[in-house]
TrEMBL record:
<protein>
    <recommendedName>
        <fullName>Tubulin-specific chaperone A</fullName>
    </recommendedName>
</protein>
<dbReference type="GO" id="GO:0005874">
    <property type="term" value="C:microtubule"/>
</dbReference>
<comment type="subunit">
    <text>Supercomplex made of cofactors A to E. Cofactors A and D function by capturing and stabilizing tubulin in a quasi-native conformation. Cofactor E binds to the cofactor D-tubulin complex; interaction with cofactor C then causes the release of tubulin polypeptides that are committed to the native state.</text>
</comment>
<dbReference type="GO" id="GO:0007021">
    <property type="term" value="P:tubulin complex assembly"/>
</dbReference>
<dbReference type="InterPro" id="IPR036126">
    <property type="entry name" value="TBCA_sf"/>
</dbReference>
<keyword id="KW-0175">Coiled coil</keyword>
<dbReference type="GO" id="GO:0048487">
    <property type="term" value="F:beta-tubulin binding"/>
</dbReference>
<dbReference type="GO" id="GO:0007023">
    <property type="term" value="P:post-chaperonin tubulin folding pathway"/>
</dbReference>
<keyword id="KW-0493">Microtubule</keyword>
<dbReference type="GO" id="GO:0005829">
    <property type="term" value="C:cytosol"/>
</dbReference>
<dbReference type="InterPro" id="IPR004226">
    <property type="entry name" value="TBCA"/>
</dbReference>
<dbReference type="Pfam" id="PF02970">
    <property type="entry name" value="TBCA"/>
</dbReference>
<comment type="similarity">
    <text>Belongs to the TBCA family.</text>
</comment>
<feature type="coiled-coil region">
    <location>
        <begin position="18"/>
        <end position="72"/>
    </location>
</feature>
<keyword id="KW-0963">Cytoplasm</keyword>
<keyword id="KW-0143">Chaperone</keyword>
<keyword id="KW-0206">Cytoskeleton</keyword>
Amino acid sequence: MSEIPALKRQLKIKSGAAKRLLKENGLYRKETEDLQRKHDKMIADGAEEWDLKNAKRLVEESNKMVTDTNDRMGRAVGELRDVVIKARTEPSFAEDEDFMSAEAILEEAAL
């Protein structure tokens, strides 16, 4: 019986982490697109070499962050999936708000 509160706590923790990383990944993707557009505009406008190198470096750093958050998000979603699978075996979680929220986050991450 003491496993249910621990499972509920893990659901909250893992779903919060997955949700945060999902949002963070989306923000970094948007930032990368914006920086790439800015870099392309600088090329079209004939900006100085230093400005182009700096803009390209920013795009590369942003791409690294997308990769990093993607990896961390994948791990967090995997851990959340494991906890959700474990929670499905408990009948008391059938209508639990945290359980429903965790499943919604898993669906969102699958997209």
